[in-house]
Amino acid sequence: MPGMNSSTTVPLQLPCPHCGATNRLPVARIDEAPVCGRCGQPLLAGQPLDLDDSNFDSVVAATQLPVLVDFWAAWCGPCQAMAPAFKQAGQQLAGKALLVKVNSDDSPRLAARFGIRSIPTLVKLQAGQEVQRQSGALPVAGIVRFMQG
Ligand SMILES: [Zn+2]
User: Fold this and answer.
1) Strands 22-25 and 49-51
2) Ligand 1 centroid to 22 CA: how many Å?
3) Per-residue pLDDT tens over the stretch 8-17
4) Strands 121-126, 129-135: parallel, antiparallel or unpaired by DSSP?
5) Is 36 a catalytic residue?
6) CA of 4 relative to ligand 1 center, distance in Å
7) Which residue in 19, 36, 39, 76 is the catalytic one?
8) What is the DSSP letter of 106?
9) If you measure from the C-alpha of residue 112 to the centroid of ligand 1, how many angstroms do you get, rounded to a whole number?
């Protein structure tokens, strides 16, 4: 894309959930059901994306889907407990929502911008704007309902 500044075109590094190969995916192709360059299997298919201060905005700007952000941290027990549910919810919402995980310790600018005071906090974005949030862990069905509500 001509005229785009290089900081917005840094490709995402995506580990393939099937073979483990690291794929470089241009952010602009996030909605195109990308497949692994090595094994040809879907790279996302509802798999939550790990984003941080450096790439969050470009991904949110690139996707047409509503985005569900899980603010978490490694030391947070309820966050760890919710991680498998978040992953399963991602599979159920594949093609309908983009699920994103942000480590609030590693991404202080995002945590500050969203005013994250407790984790886990789920934030739902539509067209880049926050429309709803939920603090505290949810089960799979609760996450799916929150996203569809
Ligand atoms: Zn692969």
Assistant:
1) unpaired
2) 8
3) 568 899 989 8
4) antiparallel
5) no
6) 29
7) 76
8) T
9) 35
